[in-house]
Amino acid sequence: MGDQIRMSIRFQAVLLAFLTAALPLKAQTTGPWVDFTPQEWVQLEEAIDKGLGWLATQQNRNGSIGPNTKSVQPAHTALTTMAFLSRGHQPGQGEHGKMLERAIHFVLSTQDRYGFFVTDSNYDSSGSSYSHAIAGVMLAEVIGMANHSRNEQIAEAIERGLTATTKLQQRHAGEPRQKGGWRYIKRNSNDADLSVTTWHLLFLRAAKNANFNVPEYLVTDAANYVRNCFKPSDKGFGYFPGRNATITMTGAGTLCLFLAGQYDDPAAAEGIETIKDYNFTFLDKERWPYYTCYHCSQAASQAGGEVRQKTLKEITRYLLERQTEGGNWPKAKAGSVTTGPAYTTAMAILALTPSYQILPIYQQ
């Protein structure tokens, strides 16, 4: 009975947050967030809606979206669902309501007995850890939007998912440079990397925003690991501690420290300066330009001011110039690996929508 009462209180708090903080579907075209012209706002919204229209055609019979391979699911489905949520669409409502319900059902169905959201039952692929964390972020963002019975199922899944993420982080508890980080569930189990760590930290933050119990030491340890990945001579973050910095990991590391509440951290300050100075028209030379856009747009949005204006404008210009006539975003020119256009399209949309301030994880 006590658990039921606590669950009911949580739902009331989550629903109240959505009712009082929800923004209209149309982005704010006035004010200081991003000073796009009215025409630029129209172009942005048309591009996002066209991309979402294409993604809606990619749903499979089982509710998944994109390739049905163990290395990319349920991450693709979760990222696509978040892309729709970030534009103001909700499960069970409007044009895409049923599609979103089916997508959420699929993600929930992938949770295994250990609490991981995976389709790779052997955890052999490096994507398993990503899939788990990304699915957790999506579910923590969508809770409160679904009906009551579905919310109960989502809440239980998040609790189990947090337990799995916590145990995975504790694997590195005795290793000073790795403590607080995450990597893969089975492969390379004795080290951590900033890329995977970012998604697990996003999961913790999204769950905390939704009133789940996230012990502070988990976030503190994660932030300490992120600092270990900062390279002062490069003024940015690397994939591993001691590795040369990249703009992709600098966006991720800076965002991590912001979401951990470390806005005054010197590493975060250096990272945001590097993002501000970066010319995003050069992104075609990067292996992961959509991934870079996603992390840098979020980090710049959190930082505010000049860096937000410059970064979001440059990223928006870059992405809108590369959208295909069909609505999707193609594989990166320099990318040697691709997981398909559902991934690139979802990531592009998520990089374009922080200006809307709809998803809780985007909000300052």
The arrangement of helices and strands along the chain is HHHHHHHHEEHHHHH
Categorize the overall geometry: globular
Label the structural class: mainly alpha
Rounded average pLDDT? 88
Q: Approximately what portion of the residues adopt beta-strand conformation?
A: under 5%
Could you name the ranges where pLDDT drops below 50 across 5 or more consecutive residues? 1-32
Query: How many domains in all?
Result: 1
Distance between the termini: 36 Å
Number of discrete helical segments: 13
CATH architectural name? Alpha/alpha barrel
CATH topology: Glycosyltransferase
Strand order of the largest sheet: 1-2
Number of strands: 2
Q: How much helix, percentage-wise, in residues? A: 40-55%
The gyration radius over C-alpha positions equals 19 Å
Largest sheet: 2 strands, antiparallel
The CATH class: Mainly Alpha
